[in-house]
Amino acid sequence: MPLGPEHPQEGRLNTFKAPVLVPHRTAALKEWWLGQGGGNTPNWDIAVACKVNGEDGLVLVEAKANVQELKAAGKWQDAKASAESRRNHDQIGRAIALAAKGLSDHCPGIELSHKAHYQLSNRIAFAWKLASLGVPTVLVYLGFLGDQGICDAGEPLVNDEQWQKLVGDHLEAIHAEKLLNGPVAVGASKFWLTVRSREVQVENYSPERVPRGKVRPAL
């Protein structure tokens, strides 16, 4: 996870050294997402190993600070993409489709896809896959409220009510609103999807000192 201006890198689960992600789970996660090809699994704003109801599990956080960051777009692919990139693109589509099928009993009509609402779809798909591998997972959509330091990037989130509605509207668009606040039982384990917010707390923040798009003000 990002630790500051000098270490802005986000985490990936295939390289995250959490004890619960034993080698066979890490390998299964990457193969599900990318097949036999190379490439990377998605970045996470925060990934934390923890106890979930007494079991080793994960908390995964998708953090946003402005309205425009929640997107309905699909996964873009360059027309000149390499053969491996095209294979990965197709495999990701299949991985998300498997998650949708696995969640269809809990959420009839759920429309997880790489063609629309891709970011939300892949977050839910990863929570589903981790639970299917026996990893209890809490997926948190976290809204940072009142971040005036990113006004040039879009409209800052104002309050919890606005944030809850924004996420709720996106979940309804893909018929996934029944996943909220779980638990959602998936084979060997469960996952939870929850929406939370908090005010941004600025400590000696100077926009000139922090590259835009790297990190937000200290929290």
Descriptive notes:
By secondary structure, the chain is an alpha/beta fold. It has one domain. It has helices at 23-34, 83-103, 118-132, 160-173; strands spanning 11-12, 43-44, 46-52, 55-64, 137-145, 184-186, 189-199. The strands form two sheets. A five-stranded mixed sheet has the order 3-4-5-7-6. Helix 2 (83-103) crosses helix 3.
Quick recap of the structure?
This protein is α/β, with parallel strands linked by helices and 219 residues long.
N-to-C order of helices and strands: EHEEEHHEHEE
Number of domains: 1
Helix count equals 4
The share of residues in extended strands comes to 15-25%
- Average the pLDDT over all residues and give the rounded result: 87
End-to-end separation in angstroms reads 14 Å
Identify the strand order in the major beta sheet: 3-4-5-7-6
Rg, rounded, reads 17 Å
Helical content stands at 25-40%
Tally of strands: 7
Uncertain segments are: 209-219
Shape: globular
Class inferred from helices and paired strands: alpha/beta
State the major sheet.
5 strands, mixed
